[in-house]
Input
Amino acid sequence: MTANLEQGDIYFFYRSKIDSEQVNSIDDVQRFYLVMVADNDDKARLFVIGKKRLPDISDGSAKSTQREWMMNYLTASPTEIGNELGPLEYDTSTEGERQQGEAIPAGAGRYVIFEHHDSTRLAYRLHQPDKPGKAQKELGILAEASFVISVKNPDIDAPGFPDQKPDYPQQLKEKFADKRWIDISDTRLLDYENAQLLLIGAHDDLAETEADISGKPALFDTLGLKPKNWPGASIEDGKFTTPDFKLEPKEPRGDPSKGGRRGGKAALDSASAAGIAKALKGIDFPRNKDEVVEFAEEHDASDDILEVLNELPERKFKTMADLEKAVGEVR
Output
């Protein structure tokens, strides 16, 4: 018998790279977001998805190779989450002001988190676009899908996961005991910033599960957004599209150059010279900026480190010391 733990709206957004003039594929995407807004709740959760796509699903069954992490970036009111998805403006010491477009909606649907045999599952059914297109295909967004979902113990490191840790209260910490992963016995485990989750692809046909999904999403109304300010090609026709910058850019939350709301000093520490050297361990030089960022992404560098690396000047770096000097100039 299936027991639903939570249900609500689910939205997918992608954000293009800084100063990107065109988005033609996932290669032009810097961040991929998943938003959950539970029914009858006054809060929403904004998650960052690792490697910028949902895990693949093979043959309708769960496989350990089809997995990906996601991390809670912000828990706030739905309208605050909507505001967080607007255009960003970075003030760098080397290149002045640089802008990053608004996060572009790529999907809206309904989700449910439920118990299934000996695991917990996240399942969703897409309502927009009517049929997934190129953008959804590259981002791993299917018409419907389910995933095994687990929460990572913040006291046990896992290769490939971000360094940040959630500040769980003792009551929730005790649920982990000495386990690396636990099921979602309490959905409050998802509410804490930096909470990290493991998704494993399970089914691409919800008829094969016991998921019961009903209702209709209301993306713009729920997040307090005006449709005229947001590009619609992705969510309407499934196409990649370029940001419009119709809204006033704001300073990014957690801008590593200023500490920001996201962890303050902790954000700076994670993007320290030592942290960047660790994230780039094994890289050979010379490398240009794009190659450095690509290497960091492929080796699952934290979001704070990636944000700093994306502010680097467009030039070739001859050594790690050369790169670290450039990092010091933009922070």
About this structure: Residues 5 and 186 are 8 Å apart (CA to CA). The mean pLDDT is 87. The chain is about 20% helix and 30% strand. The longest helix spans residues 320-330.
